[in-house]
Amino acid sequence: MSQPASALSSAATRGGETAVGVLAAISFCHMLNDMMQSLLPAMYPMLKSSYALSFSQIGLLTFTFQFTASLLQPLIGAYADRRARPYSLATGMGFTLCGLLLLAYAGSYALLLCGAALIGTGSSVFHPESSRVARMASGGRHGMAQSVFQVGGNFGSASGPLLAAFIVLPHGQTSVAWFSLVALLGMFVLVNVGHWYKTHGISRQRAASARPAAPRRHVVIAISVLLALIFSKYFYLASITSYYTFYLIDHFHVSVRNAQLLLFVFLGSAALGGFIGGPLGDKLGAKYIIWASILGVLPFTLILPHVNLLWTALLTVPIGLILSSAFPAIVVYAQDLLPGRTGTVAGLFFGLAFGMGSVGAAVLGALADHVGITLVYQICAFLPLIGLLAALLPDVHKYQSAAAG
Question: N or C: the chain end with fewer CB closer than 10 Å?
Answer without folding.
Answer: C
